[in-house]
Amino acid sequence: MASQITSEIKTALVTPNVFQNVLSGEDLNSGFYREMLDRMLSQPIQWYMTEPDYDWAFVFWDTFSSRLDRGLQEADFKFRSSVRTCRVTPSLLEDADTYRLLNFADAVRLSCAIDRNLDAIVTWEPHHFAQTESEKQSLQRSGYFPLKIESEDIETQISSFLDTGIFSPSSLLKYLYRCHSPPSNRRQYFAIHQIQIRGGDENDSTTAWTIVRDSQGNFLEATTCGTSPLDALQKSIDRCVDRSLRLPQREIYRIFCPDKLIYRADAPIDVVVSVRCGGLIFEASAINSSILRAASEAYLDTINSICNCPHINRG
C-alpha cells in the first residue's frame, strides 16, 4: 500500500507554515491551532526544524502574535522550546540539488530529514513533496504518504531506501491516533482492575468504586461521588492515581464514540477520551461492551500518556 509507513514515528521535521498559518488573525482559528499544537507536543516525538526555518517561523510570531489570545501564545512558546534546530551545511545543500521538488526550500528540508534519519516531515503543504502518481493518490486518500529515498552508505557503498512519512499536522494526529498499539518503550503505569457504579434516584449523586493496579503490582482503591457515572469514575480514578504519583490537574474536555452502528446491546463500543493536562492535550480510546468500562480504560490510558510525556512534571 502506498500509504503504509514502515517505522514508528519518534522524530519529525516541522516546517514554518505550521506556526505561521494561524497569524491570519481569524479568531475562529485560534482554538483549532492551540489544540493542534498542544496535541502535537503531547506526542512522544522529538521535533526538528532547519535553522533558517526556525528563524523564519518565529520572526513573524515575535512581530504579530500579540494580537492572538494568550493560550495560543503559550502553546506556541512550549512548542518552540521543544524544537531542535538542524544546521544547513554545504553538503546538505548539495544533496538538496538532487531532489526534484517544487521549491528549493522543501528540498533542503528533505535533505535535512534524510541526513538526520528523521521519521517524518510535517507541513501544511505535503503536496509539495509528492512526485509520483502513487504518492499523490495516497495523499488524496489518506492525507499522508511515505517518501522513499535511495541512500548509499559512504563506507560500505551499500544502497538502502529511507522511508520518510510526509504529513499535514491533522493527518499526523489522525495517523497516530489510529495506531492503537502503544510504542514498545511506552511504560504502562496504571491499569483498571475493577470498577463498580452505584446510582441513586434521579436527583441523587452517583458513587464509583474503583481499583487501579500500578506498575509495581499494587492495588489502589478509591470510592467517590459525582454528578454522573463518568464524573464519579474520573474522580475515583484520579484519587487512585494521586496516591501513587503527583501529576498536574486533569480535565476531561471531550468524550465521544466514533461514528459506528451498534447492532446488539452487548456489542463492543469504542470510546475516545480527550484530556487537558499541563497545558497539553492527550487522547486515548478503549473498546468494551460496557461504555463506562471503555471510558474508564480510555481515561486511564490518557494518564499513562501523561506519565510518559517528557513535558509533564510528575512526582
What does this structure look like?
The protein is of the alpha/beta class. The chain folds into 2 domains: 11-178, Rossmann fold (3-Layer(aba) Sandwich); 190-308, Double Stranded RNA Binding Domain. The chain has 10 helices and 12 strands. Strand 11 (269-277) and strand 12 (280-288) form a beta hairpin.
Report the β-strand fraction as a percent range: 25-35%
Mean pLDDT: 83
What is the number of domains?
Answer: 2
CATH class of the largest domain: Alpha Beta
Number of helices: 10
- Total strand segments: 12
The parts where pLDDT drops under 50 for at least 5 residues are none
Helical percentage = 25-40%
Radius of gyration: 22 Å
Order of helices and strands: EHHEHHEHHEHEEHEEEHEEEH
Major pleated sheet: 6 strands, mixed
CATH architecture of the largest domain: 3-Layer(aba) Sandwich
Going across the biggest sheet, name each strand in turn: 3-2-1-4-6-5
Q: How far do the termini sit from each other? A: 44 Å
- The shape, in one word, is elongated
Strand-pairing-aware structural class: alpha/beta
| CATH topology assignment of the largest domain | Rossmann fold
Keywords, separated by commas or semicolons:
315 residues; alpha/beta; Rossmann fold; 2 domains; six-stranded mixed sheet; 10 helices; 12 strands; 27% strand
Quick overview:
The chain is α/β, with parallel strands linked by helices. Helices cover 37% and strands 27% of the residues. The mean pLDDT is 83.
Question: How does the SSE layout of this entry go?
Answer:
Elements: E1 11-14, H1 17-20, H2 27-42, E2 46-50, H3 51-64, H4 70-82, E3 84-86, H5 90-96, H6 104-115, E4 120-122, H7 133-142, E5 144-152, E6 159-167, H8 169-178, E7 190-199, E8 206-214, E9 219-226, H9 229-242, E10 250-256, E11 269-277, E12 280-288, H10 291-308
Parallel strand pairs: 1-2, 1-4, 2-3, 4-6
Antiparallel strand pairs: 5-6, 7-8, 8-9, 10-11, 11-12
Helix pairs in contact: 2-4, 5-6, 9-10
